[in-house]
């Protein structure tokens, strides 16, 4: 099969011919029909992820058709249309037993712990636990765009933030994660304030349902601007970028007993950001993470997709070929991409 392979961190990947994968006993091989290009892939390629062993194939936001099924798999057949959370659970550890596969003790992550989906085929483990069936009406590119950003945002807003109608939600950073969070928070009835440094991205944020926007380069203080718009601070605030500044602002612009949710990754030199901890204590703030979403929670999100309450297809910026993904991956840190890029040609 064709696959995008890198043999050293930060060195340009190459499109190579490699042996087709075969399913493990509890897994399947999926013919990749679409796969998203994500900043997490860039982090992995640069060398920020200690799970990755070289040579490596990136890609974790995939949708496709089951090509081959391992002998122990009972729920799936060749030809089934599927996607998979980027954190797949083992099904046997205490976290999985409690239903929290997204923090499994023995995670399978395509594109990180194992070869991923920047390829014609990808091997997925523990298929009975982790695969999600795609509705016939959902196209592969949209399904892939759910990837990690949309589902992580869904978990952040719905399950972690427990956002309710009429609450103020601040979203810092309007890339794929941020736009997803805005759409989802708006769908559950919240008033969303979007913050970014790009007017183009803020225009998109408005199109996704933000009721107010703040260009961080044009105000003296992002925290003051959000506090004013929200009449005293956000109930829930998301750092969708993953940067010490957006993290600090997101916690600081909360009202009392508000919730900050960290969705953007904080790696390397950003891994220990400054936190306004005295405010966390005095205002009884909560700091939460969101790390993907379990396969068994996809149903709620799919129901909102099918009724048109959520339209992740609006987040797709452009579709590209596997060959073009190399350049897209290497430039993923430039932040000049609007919306989500999806590979649809293999
Ligand atoms: Zn587990
Ligand atoms: Zn991702």
Key descriptive features of the protein:
7-stranded mixed sheet; 346 residues; 6-stranded parallel sheet; globular; binds zinc ion; alpha/beta; single chain; 11 helices
Q: Would you mind describing this structure in some detail?
A:
The protein has 346 residues and is α/β, with parallel strands linked by helices. 28% of the residues lie in helices and 24% in strands. It has eleven helices and 15 strands. The chain has helices at 39-46, 94-97, 127-130, 140-160, 176-187, 199-207, 222-229, 244-252, 277-282, 298-306, 325-330, and strands spanning 2-5, 14-17, 28-37, 61-69, 81-83, 121-124, 132-133, 168-172, 191-196, 212-215, 234-239, 254-262, 286-289, 316-321, 340-345. The strands form three sheets. Strands 3, 4, 5, 6, 7, 14 and 15 form a seven-stranded mixed sheet that branches. It is globular and about 55 Å long. The protein starts with a strand and ends with a strand. The model has no long low-confidence stretch (mean pLDDT 96). One zinc ion is lined by residues 89-90, 92-93, 95-96, 104-106. Residues 89-90, 92-93, 95-96, 104-106 line the site of one zinc ion.
């Amino acid at each position: 099969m064709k696959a995008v392979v890198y043999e050293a961190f930060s060195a340009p990947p190459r499109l190579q011919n490699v042996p087709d994968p075969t399913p493990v006993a509890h897994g399947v091989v999926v013919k990749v029909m679409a796969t998203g290009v994500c900043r997490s892939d860039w982090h992995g390629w640069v060398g920020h992820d200690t799970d990755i062993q070289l040579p490596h194939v990136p890609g974790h936001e995939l949708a496709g058709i089951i090509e081959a099924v391992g002998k122990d798999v009972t729920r799936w057949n060749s030809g089934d249309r599927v996607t998979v959370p980027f954190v797949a659970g083992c099904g046997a550890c205490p976290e999985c037993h409690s239903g929290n596969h997204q923090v499994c003790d023995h995670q399978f992550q395509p594109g990180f712990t194992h070869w991923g989906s920047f390829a014609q085929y990808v091997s997925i483990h523990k298929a009975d636990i982790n695969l999600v069936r795609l509705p016939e009406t959902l196209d592969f590119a949209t399904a892939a765009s759910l990837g990690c950003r949309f589902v992580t945002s869904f978990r952040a807003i719905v399950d972690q933030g427990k956002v309710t109608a009429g609450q103020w939600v601040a979203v810092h950073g309007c890339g794929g994660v941020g736009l997803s969070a805005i759409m989802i928070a708006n769908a559950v009835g919240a008033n969303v304030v979007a913050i970014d440094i790009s007017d183009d991205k803020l225009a998109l944020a408005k199109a996704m349902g933000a009721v107010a926007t703040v260009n961080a380069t044009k105000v003296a203080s992002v925290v003051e601007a959000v506090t004013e718009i929200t009449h005293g601070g956000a109930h829930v605030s998301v750092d969708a970028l993953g940067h010490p500044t957006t993290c600090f602002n997101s916690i600081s612009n909360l009202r009392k007993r508000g919730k900050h949710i960290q969705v953007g990754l904080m790696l390397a030199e950003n891994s220990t950001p400054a936190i306004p901890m005295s405010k966390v204590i005095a205002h009884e703030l909560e700091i939460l993470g969101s790390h993907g979403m379990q396969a068994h929670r996809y149903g709620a999100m799919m129901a909102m997709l099918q009724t048109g309450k959520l339209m992740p297809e609006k987040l797709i910026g452009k579709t590209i070929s596997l060959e073009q993904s190399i350049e897209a991956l290497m430039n993923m840190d430039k932040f000049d991409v609007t919306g989500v890029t999806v590979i649809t040609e293999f």
